[in-house]
Amino acid sequence: MDNLILDPKIRSLLAEAFPKCFINMRLELVVYPLRNTWVPLDGVRTIDELRARVIEYLSREAFKGGSNRSQNYHLHGINKVCGMSFSRESMEFIYCELGNAVNPMLCRRFVSEMDCNLNKLQRAVLEMRGVTNGPY
């Protein structure tokens, strides 16, 4: 892991983003124990890889989790880790296109090349689908 998770700044960021979180012995970031939401950290070497994993594994809970409290907790945490202010509506699109690791390459591009810009993600999705004129 190149000590990314051992970096005090990263640990502080995660603690601020997800106050209930802890890292278990299987290198899983357990974000919300009550809902058993977690992010695998094995193989994460950069902050962009961490951000992509957070989006892939937590966007569903932020968009349509069990309760408003859980949704808000996860949405706040994703926003904190990514340095963004996504709305729940934005998170719906992100979840549908990137959640559950449905498109890891695009998710990594979204985090690194696109700087988590939702408009750029929408254009990239349209291009992938071969749509030249779309609602985005």
Provide a descriptive summary of the structure in words.
Helix content is 54%, strand content 8%. The protein has helices at residues 8-17, 47-64, 68-82, 88-98, 104-111, 118-128; strands at 22-23, 28-32, 37-40. It starts with 7 loop residues before the first helix and ends in an 8-residue tail after the last helix. 30% of the residues are buried. The model has no long low-confidence stretch (mean pLDDT 93).
Question: Given the structure, what is the number of helices?
Answer: 6
- Report strand %: 5-15%
Number of strands: 3
Strand order of the largest sheet: 1-2-3
Low-confidence stretches: none
Structural class: mainly alpha
What average pLDDT do the residues reach? 93
Quote the distance from N terminus to C terminus: 37 Å
Radius of gyration: 15 Å
Helix % is 40-55%
Q: Largest sheet, if any? A: 3 strands, antiparallel
Which descriptors would you attach to this protein?
54% helix, mainly alpha, 3-stranded antiparallel beta sheet, 136 residues, 6 helices
Topology (elements, then pairings):
Blueprint: H1 8-17, E1 22-23, E2 28-32, E3 37-40, H2 47-64, H3 68-82, H4 88-98, H5 104-111, H6 118-128
Antiparallel strand pairs: 1-2, 2-3
Question: Quick summary of this structure?
Answer:
The protein has 136 residues and is mainly alpha-helical.
